[in-house]
């Protein structure tokens, strides 16, 4: 049997591999700057980790080196409807990190000191003041650190919206299109792609952005810079709608369960890990789900008589130091990487997209990116397997 | 080949398929574990009233009383030889083990992990819901739901009940309601007289079943019940409670006063457990649904996992009994035990004949193909998440969703308590219609645990916190 497949050719200034929140926002900012952009997504834009994460939009708890980008992202989130046309259920509810004992409270205080120059507006609340302010949390914690302008959003809506806005602004966005092969040509890159329907697509571009999340390692390796990237699968669960009792996004110092309640009343909780079905798909693990449920009801007694109606996970790329890789390739001019967000890419993603656009336009970004250079792994042995990280 | 399995075979479901599976395994000397959501065996079709309720089987099951009684007796007879766990929900399958919790609604209880080497899934089916304006008004029930109310607790869903939809069950339940003393306000069949006539030759393959159908219609007519074919629902009227159904036939609207509507447009197989077990699926054009691939014997694509009954594709109770027995024989074959191969062949032949009859039934009571195009935009499709037909159409037409899981992600359809079990079929039909394609071309909702809402009481704390 012979099939006739269409071969299509595209020319672009910038080809972006991966339509998650990073690739989508890079596409949007580059298109707005006047670049001709081709965004290639194997699945649907924002359908992988960008779209199925917990939905925390949180600066608090990030290491200081991420905060300049995170602060820029905070500003971008503030004008989400103007940028992508929807509010994405984004609310600045505040993010409260709980301390279950005095030692954890001390480490929240230490963090507060460490990041005070960044202007997060953190507030330590403890003792009677804590109980008076958060009666719903009862005596589950001795105190906490509140970041009043952090919050949460619906990743299923927000992440696809960036790619959609890019398309509306003029970017060529191809979903269900896998990039099979990438090579450096005389003046740029050649990408050979295949759509799910079997049509072939060839994209030529001057610049190439590698924003393909947990699957980015292969592309980096093909340009001679392997990174010790591992996949893990944060486990999430959601209840039926419940009476409102939680108006702040909750995390716990030292890891464990995290939770938020959405406008409809459903409570989303996360914690523990799922398992891989194959390289592309994962499912929540029974022990993770049951432990998460036990810990969630321990933290939120309001859930005692509620149900989990759905659980899910995704495939996320983790680096050994839990910092992302953002910036130019060390081997290949015109290639830029942005991946390995290690479970914390949703909030920072739009600013990373903007920084990538600046790198393409100016050769440098106004945000400090040195810490995130791919060269920090140059001496790492790629054969060393990296254990999946635990906790959040 | 081994003669003694490491774990006892597990049967999920104690309806016609599950009971016959268990019976066959017990006859071969095995002691299966039978897990069922209900309090007593029988499944939906032969559901038993709670203990202490005594209604004659003839009143509960009509013409099927003999079959119901035989099935109930079969299970009662093997009870000492099986591990029977009623009121238990299998909410997950992972890495060769089931996760089971008490099926006690809110109360729940600890979850238990039960490993298996051989698993027969016989989870049955639920009504296929195709919404129409007003379908969420209190007093509107699915056909299966109204039958369960009658069989289980001897209550009717209303005192003046209107039956709407298609399929043999429509007439059967209307008849049962009338016999039980309820007023049947009418039977409105969405299929047409021409459909019925065209299907007669095929239906005569099973003259017994055909005759029963003719009898029910005749009985209802003789007792003054209005019976109409080629009907489309227009809207339920009533504020807070059904007061009437407005319907259309040959372009003319009519109004029937009633206090309850029972509607059913066929059944949909329960397939989430087969999905979680990793079985490959295929689209079944007759069921208009994705079903696990299976051989004539009931083997799935996963070694050691078998499917039988309506959960493997709608075929009815008689076929379910045969499929259950056949799947049990397949399991025994796979254990290297001697089986009666003539019996196995006979069962396969009978199942094939039953499938031919089923095709004729589908001709007689066709899916209302115009439903997706005609349901108004403001009709809710997903009750749990309050998603309307218009919202789904818009997502499809704006090019945002070309696949059912994407539609779910963007609109929340199928994200609520039912996880798409109730709204999935309608959503797929709407998406397909909006995209100008068929329900086979819009993908399949991915199953995630739990298959039904799981009480937090199932959760555990780690040792340190529990102590």
Distance between the termini of chain B: 45 Å
> Tell me, what is the CATH class of the largest domain in chain B?
Alpha Beta
Q: What is the annotated CATH architecture of the largest domain in chain B? A: 3-Layer(bba) Sandwich
The CATH homologous superfamily of the largest domain in chain B is called: FAD/NAD(P)-binding domain
Total number of distinct structural domains of chain A: 2
Tally the helices of chain B.
15
CATH topology of the largest domain in chain B: FAD/NAD(P)-binding domain
Total DSSP E strands of chain A: 21
Number of helices, counting only DSSP H or I runs of 4 residues or more of chain A:
10
Structural class designation of chain A: alpha+beta
Secondary structure: helix percent of chain A? 25-40%
According to CATH, what is the topology of the largest domain in chain A?
A: FAD/NAD(P)-binding domain
Helix coverage percent of chain B: 25-40%
Average pLDDT score of chain B: 92
> Which protein chains make the most extensive interface, counting residues with beta carbons within 8 Å of the other chain's beta carbons?
A-B, 33 and 33 residues
Shape of chain A: globular
Main beta-sheet strand count, sense and barrel state of chain A: 8 strands, mixed
Stretches of chain A where pLDDT falls below 50 for ≥5 residues? 382-392
What are the low-pLDDT stretches of chain B, counting only 5+ consecutive residues below 50? none
Biggest β-sheet strands, sense, barrel of chain B: 5 strands, parallel
- Structural class of the secondary structure composition of chain B? alpha/beta
Layout of strands and helices, then pairs:
The complex is a heterodimer of chains A (392) and B (467).
Chain A: E1 7-17, H1 21-33, E2 37-40, H2 49-52, E3 56-57, H3 67-78, H4 80-84, E4 95-99, H5 102-114, E5 123-126, H6 127-133, E6 143-147, E7 151-152, H7 155-169, E8 172-174, E9 177-185, E10 188-195, E11 200-210, H8 216-222, E12 230-232, E13 234-239, E14 249-252, E15 258-261, E16 267-276, E17 282-284, H9 286-299, E18 307-312, E19 316-318, E20 325-328, E21 335-339, H10 349-362
Parallel strand pairs in A: 1-2, 1-11, 2-8, 4-14, 11-21
Antiparallel strand pairs in A: 3-7, 4-6, 5-6, 9-10, 10-11, 12-19, 13-16, 13-18, 15-16, 16-17, 20-21
Chain B: E1 10-12, H1 16-27, E2 33-35, H2 57-61, H3 65-78, E3 83-85, E4 88-94, E5 97-102, E6 112-115, E7 119-121, E8 125-127, E9 140-142, H4 143-153, E10 160-166, H5 168-180, E11 183-189, H6 193-203, H7 207-222, E12 227-228, E13 232-237, E14 244-249, E15 252-257, E16 260-265, E17 267-269, H8 272-276, E18 281-284, E19 289-292, E20 305-307, H9 317-334, H10 341-364, H11 371-374, E21 380-382, E22 387-388, H12 389-397, H13 404-411, H14 424-435, E23 454-455, H15 463-466
Parallel strand pairs in B: 1-2, 1-7, 2-3, 7-20, 9-16, 10-11, 10-16, 11-12
Antiparallel strand pairs in B: 4-5, 5-6, 8-17, 13-14, 14-15, 18-19, 21-22
Helix pairs in contact in B: 1-3, 1-9, 4-5, 5-7, 6-10, 9-10, 12-14
């Amino acid at each position: 049997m012979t099939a006739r497949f269409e071969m299509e050719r595209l020319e672009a200034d910038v080809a972006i591999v991966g339509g998650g929140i990073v690739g989508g926002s890079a596409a949007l900012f580059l298109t707005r700057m006047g670049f001709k952009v081709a965004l290639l997504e194997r699945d649907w834009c924002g359908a992988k980790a960008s779209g199925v994460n917990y939905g925390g939009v949180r600066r608090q708890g990030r290491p200081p080196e991420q905060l300049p980008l995170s602060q820029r992202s905070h500003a971008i989130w503030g004008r989400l409807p103007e940028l992508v046309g929807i509010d994405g259920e984004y609310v600045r509810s505040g993010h409260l990190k709980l301390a279950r004992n005095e030692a954890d409270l001390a480490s929240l205080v230490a963090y507060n000191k460490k990041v005070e120059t960044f202007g997060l507006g953190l507030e330590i609340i403890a003792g009677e003041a804590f109980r008076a302010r958060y009666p719903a949390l009862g005596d589950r914690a001795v105190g906490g650190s509140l970041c009043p302008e952090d919050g949460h959003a619906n990743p299923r809506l927000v992440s696809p919206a960036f790619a959609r806005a890019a398309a509306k602004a003029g970017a060529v966005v191809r979903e269900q299109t896998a990039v099979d092969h990438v090579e450096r040509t005389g003046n740029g890159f050649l990408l050979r792609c295949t759509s799910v329907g079997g049509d072939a697509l060839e994209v030529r571009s001057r610049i190439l952005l590698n924003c393909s999340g947990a699957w980015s390692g292969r592309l980096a390796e093909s340009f001679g810079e392997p990174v010790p990237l591992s996949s893990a699968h944060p486990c999430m669960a959601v209840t039926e709608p419940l009476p409102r009792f939680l108006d702040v996004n909750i995390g716990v110092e030292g890891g464990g369960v995290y939770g938020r309640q959405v406008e409809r009343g459903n409570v989303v909780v996360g914690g523990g890990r799922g398992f891989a079905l194959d390289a592309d798909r994962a499912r929540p693990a029974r022990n993770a789900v049951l432990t998460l449920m036990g810990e969630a009801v321990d933290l939120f007694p309001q859930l005692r008589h509620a149900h989990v109606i759905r659980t899910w996970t995704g495939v996320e790329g983790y680096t050994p130091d839990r910092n992302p890789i953002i910036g130019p390739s060390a081997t290949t001019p015109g290639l830029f990487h942005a991946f390995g967000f290690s479970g914390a890419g949703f909030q920072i993603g739009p600013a990373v997209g903007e920084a990538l656009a600046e790198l393409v336009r100016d050769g440098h970004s106004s945000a400090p990116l040195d810490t995130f250079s791919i060269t920090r792994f140059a001496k790492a042995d790629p054969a060393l397997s990296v254990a999946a990280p635990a906790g959040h | 080949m081994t003669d003694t399995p490491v774990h006892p075979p597990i049967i999920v479901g104690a309806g016609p398929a599950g009971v016959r599976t268990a019976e066959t395994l017990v006859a071969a000397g095995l002691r299966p574990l039978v897990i069922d959501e209900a309090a007593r065996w029988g499944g939906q079709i032969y559901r038993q009233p709670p203990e202490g309720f005594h209604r004659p089987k003839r009143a509960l099951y009509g013409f099927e009383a003999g079959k119901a009684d035989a099935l109930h007796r079969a299970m009662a007879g093997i009870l000492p030889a099986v591990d029977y766990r009623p009121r238990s929900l299998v909410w997950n399958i992972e890495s060769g083990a089931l996760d089971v919790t008490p099926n006690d609604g809110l109360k729940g209880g600890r979850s238990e992990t039960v490993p298996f080497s051989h698993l027969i899934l016989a989870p049955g089916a639920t009504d296929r819901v195709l919404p129409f304006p007003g379908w969420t008004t209190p007093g509107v029930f699915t056909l299966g739901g109204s039958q369960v109310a009658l069989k289980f607790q001897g209550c009717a869903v209303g005192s003046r009940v209107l039956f709407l939809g298609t399929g043999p069950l429509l007439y059967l339940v209307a008849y049962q309601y009338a016999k039980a003393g309820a007023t049947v306000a009418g039977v409105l069949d969405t299929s047409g007289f021409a459909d019925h006539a065209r299907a007669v030759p095929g239906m005569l393959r099973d003259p017994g079943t055909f005759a029963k159908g003719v009898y029910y219609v005749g009985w209802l007519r003789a007792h003054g019940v209005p019976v109409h074919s080629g009907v489309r629902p227009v809207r339920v009227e009533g504020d807070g409670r059904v007061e009437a159904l407005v319907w259309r036939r040959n372009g003319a609207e009519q109004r029937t006063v009633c206090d309850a509507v029972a509607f059913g447009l066929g059944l949909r197989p329960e397939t989430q457990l087969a999905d979680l077990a990793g079985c490959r699926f295929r689209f079944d054009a007759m069921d208009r649904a994705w079903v696990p691939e299976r051989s004539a014997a009931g083997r799935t694509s996963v070694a050691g996992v078998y499917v039988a009954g309506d959960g493997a594709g709608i075929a009815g109770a008689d076929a379910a009994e045969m499929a259950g027995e056949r799947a049990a024989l397949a399991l025994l074959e796979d254990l290297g035990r001697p089986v009666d191969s003539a019996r196995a062949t006979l069962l396969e032949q009978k199942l094939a004949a039953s499938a031919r009859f089923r095709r004729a039934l589908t001709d007689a009571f066709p899916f209302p193909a115009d439903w997706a195009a005609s349901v108004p935009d403001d009709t809710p499709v997903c009750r749990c998440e309050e998603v309307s037909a218009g919202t789904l159409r818009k997502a499809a037409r704006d090019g945002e969703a070309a696949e059912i899981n994407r539609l779910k992600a963007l609109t929340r359809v199928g994200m609520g308590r039912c996880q798409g079990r109730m709204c999935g079929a309608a959503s797929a039909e709407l998406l397909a219609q909006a995209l100008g394609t068929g329900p086979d071309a819009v993908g399949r909702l991915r199953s995630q645990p739990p298959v039904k809402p799981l009480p937090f009481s199932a959760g555990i704390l780690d040792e340190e916190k529990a102590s």
